[in-house]
Design brief:
CATH topology: Methanol Dehydrogenase, Chain A
Number of domains: 1
Strand content: 35-45%
Number of strands: 43
Structural class: mainly beta
Helix content: under 10%
Radius of gyration: 22 Å
CATH superfamily: Quinoprotein alcohol dehydrogenase-like superfamily
Strand order of the largest sheet: 1-37-38-39-40
Amino acid sequence: MTKNLPAAIHRFASTMRAFLLLGAGLAALAGCSGGSPATSPQNMVGPRGPQGATQDVLTFHNDNARTGQNLNETILTPATVNMNTFGKLFVIPVDGQVDAQPLYAGAVNTPGGNTHNLLIVATEHDSVYAFDADNGAMIWQVSMLQQGETTSDDHGCGQVTPEIGVTATPVIDRSAGPSGTIYVVAMSKTGTGQYFQRLHALNLATGAEGFGGPQNVQATFSGNGDNSSAGMVVFDPGQYKERPGLLLLNGVVYTAWSSHCDSRPYTGWIMGYDQNSLVQVNVLNVTPNGNEGSFWNSGAAPASDASGNIFALQANGTFDTTMNASGFPSQGNFGNSFLKISTNNRLLAVADFFTPFNVVAENSVDQDLGSGGALVVPDQTDASSRIRHLAVGAGKDANIYVLDRDNMGKFNPASNSNAYQAISGALAGPVFSMPAYFNGVIYYGAVGDTIKAFHFSNARLASAPSSQTPTAFPYPGATPSISANGGSNGIVWAAENGGTAVLHAYDASNLANELYNSNQAAGGSDHFGQGNKFITPTVAHGKVYVGTINSVAVFGLR
């Protein structure tokens, strides 16, 4: 599947902020794992509290619902973010492309009795770094490469190029291991051309490998689809890259796998690994008797809800238009579908799904849902006072699908009337990103389109935006991030791809009000390098971190 289109700081203030962070941050180190608040489906940010409390960003788009919100930000407000008071502080160089979203862990005790707010950065050169998030000093760096290995080549595919190392956003558990653990997947190859995918568990404070890692990623699944033998589909690590971010849910680290463009054979894999042993505990293939149907999602990680269900948008591939008695594809092939996957008893199974009525036509022209990411919407109340559990997603056909997580709609070959809502015409281009959520509003940034705000009312999403940005975003559009103090002072942050990258900040209550962009400073002094297509800004404790093709730029109050 073709996914690419042509296409310093005031020392006194820093010291005081670090002091305020220390007490709450040390308490965070004692948080719980598995089903605890620290890793529960809706909360993968740090503990909440008064000004000075940590604002950890431990997973892609802030939480397992993938809302993109940091609701504890008190330093950055619409009043303080403008070209006179806010801008680029410094740029941190690294050894490769930063395709994974940078993560933030506040008040980490490191060797020597030091405490740092850590910025965790992974690169396509198979490195993981920990930097002091306030001054850019490197705390540690480790390579994911084994002896005699290099990063993977790009397999002749321009999606991730020129090398493939760490592509997916890692996930962090502050309570796992002695100092917290970073879970990360890395790709490599030997001099003889053998490819490896490995799951690593790195000590947050030191970078040391933990839990007996790394673990080689291998899998088989019953079926006769691509790369099968004797009734078993075999996972070939060279045919895949781990593009979607990692999901940590109830003690299991989940990985979802992309192909290299349309280079068959490949199918649709999701795998889970015990976070304390790295032992594989479950595997699901969603095109086991067909082909294609991988998970791309422009880097967005699978989402999950409070009941432990996983939600993911699948790319084009084999879909069985003949249903069984339960209304599921007769051969278990779900290509180009919005999936609800149960994790009960640590077993993966498709529990429900939605597939567009014109799936066959869309598959034939590579117009799939899998270019976008899924978002689990916080509970909404409808006009009858009924609580609705919703999810939202969009892909290349530019339709916004709002689905009832309790009844996804399955497949209707005549129309999309089985969807809770199928909104067409609201977006001006395909979606190679995912939305953000704040205060009952969904923010979407499609290709060649402005970022648009769509309000929920009575558990229904408006078909027209209430506001939109003055700027249209070129390919791949934008995945916005939100900073706010509870329900107030909301800011929408977005990175614009291009020869010169641009960081934008908009008033969340009215996107027409642009607060700041990095082109405004005289002489281009806020420029920070070339754009990186799928990067998502990370906002934590008064700073914004933006990945590029060879660095991370850090913005904050001047």
